[in-house]
Amino acid sequence: MSENNGAGTKAPIDIELQLRWSDEDALGHVNNARIVTLMEEARLRWTLPRGKSGRFPHGTVVASLRLDYLRPLYYQPTMIIQLSVVRIGTKSFSLRHVGIQDGQRVFDGTTVMVPLAEDGLSSRALNDLECGWLESAYVEANA
Question: How many CA atoms lie within 13 A of 6 on its CB side?
Fold first, then answer.
């Protein structure tokens, strides 16, 4: 499948996450490394198959991660991560993670994800089922 550069019309998927007291650092902010863990939690909640979906049977791995910290994220009971697919390639796809707290963007990150082959080590091409599922969550990158 060629890279998806079409205009997306869908909205990001909102995933509410619980913050943990242990996420907080000495300055009262959520630690920068914990933000990467929150991104992972949101991504896993969204990508893990429900039942026998047939998608990503051997899992996915992060090939690249970019993260911009826009303002401090403070410990509160919950926060929102808006997750969207911003690129679909042949053997990878990119997910955007925007952290929201009190209506403000606190971080904006992108991960490039690669599906694993049966050996659990090498990459493989996305299949038609996976591409269709990813396209259902595609949002133009500048949205």
Answer: 10
